[in-house]
Amino acid sequence: YDVFLTHIKPHITSMPYVFRFLFLLTFLPSLIYAQGAKLNIDSMALRINNTETQYKRTLELERCLTAIVLNDPSSFQALREKIDVSTLSARNLLLLDSYTARELMYAGKIEELLELPSQGNPYINFFKGSAEFYLGNDDAAMKDYKEGIRVFKLYNDTIYLASAYNNVGTLHWHANRLDSALIYFQLAKSYTYWHNRMLENNILAIANTLQNYRLSKKQIDIIKQNIGEDLDAYFMTNALNYYIQNDPVRADSLEQLIRSTYTEFKDVPVQLMAIYIENSWITDSVASVLVDWAPNSFIEDALRGLTESELIATAQFTPEVLRQLADNTPSEVDSIVLTVFAQLDSTSRAGLAGALSELDSKNRLEALQKLKYAAKDFESTIAEKEDEFRNYTIVGIALMFIGLLVIIMSQYRRIQQVKESARLALLNAELAEKNSKMQVEINKVRSGIEDLTETSMQRLKGLRQAVEDLGNDKKQANTMLDDLNIIVTHEEGMMRFRIKNIVDNITAAGLKELESFMNDKEIQVLKLTLLNFRSKEIASLMGVSPQHINNMRSKMKTSIEETLNVEYDTFIMELEKNLLQPE
Description:
mainly alpha
């Protein structure tokens, strides 16, 4: 956790607490599996390759990727080269392929992360969702998280499902849609296999606000059972709100505990400030403490409570202090109210605070009652949609399984054929001319890439046509087509990933020196160029525009000629001669 804060803290210290909650939970699964990891690439690769089950291999891969991104991001390529790709599941490959998004997120390079194409990878969607939320783009963040959730369900990735549901809940909370927030927090909890105190406390807070006291009581029992006597300020705030409405005896007992624990306002945790102000438990130094605090959701509650308390009429809240508080609060409404108070004398302030308190109480009761019934309706709707989607998912998984099985069997036969061809080529190596051998190997690589692309596309189109022919239930067919599009997008991403592995295995004397001034993408384009792929073909394989490839080629030509002091065409001819030969 300390290592994590060292890397992430500069990006979260200015966030309100509810924002920090989402941001920290984004990385929680990785942190759990990265604890105690040592950065030994050989050992990491050995553990990943030798892990018995796919589930354990996924946990090991997650832990290793997090350890690398926290300590030495440049060592990822070394790990990837040592991993036996044939042992990885599709889920593992997607996780491996999302490393760049993980690295950009941890490094705080938000803009670069948002430019990264997702290509059907749910883990990239997950990290981009966090980046969008960080920039305040709530709608875009919601879309990214929900796209990720749909694929996480197909793979039953409970860890990322829990985090994604939690983050969607936080987005609803941020927008004051408490009924929806509660439902998504509970969905997150259903996939969480450890006690998450912050998640439990937030469910308790929302249950109190919605006056769902039965749920509040349940949450209090769960939290106390797991934390014992180690009561934190957030829990004490929520528990006290519940006891005031339902158990006055315990409310008095907890109140005495809080007041005896924090006897000076400067020591009061920010979560309890609103309660102290509302009840006027301490009246000294309140103004100076509020002025010094950076704005967050708890300070907003405290300032809102101040505008309904007689405390605002005391001498410590001078017009200058009130104007400063108005400038600090991010809430436009609270800022206006505090500015009005700054114009009034103490008597008028007391009168206005009393009027706001009565008005707020009446409106709050009515609003909460509406939210209470709206939450029940929304919860029923969500449950129905979950059941409906579960039925469609079963069909989708079956279709995906059939398609993947056909592809895997086809690839297995192709691998056996390649192995046999390689063995025969080795036996006859002395009889073959060097140029003839080079051309044969080039044609094999190009043919393999083209066959992989054509076979994958034909089978996926066949699956889509099969769904279209299912019957007259247009709604069901459209829904299943939608699910199939996810699989198509995923398979296209998998195809690009495998093609990348094929290209990465291409070697030639002279390629190594390019790594000092060209990036991986440029070297990949150069290798495909050596295989006689056109710009349009390369663009399709890499998921970019042909113009982008042309621009890259022009930049590469200039870099090679200026850095190596050699004609570009001469250099390419030399590489072609040495292609697929030892470096």
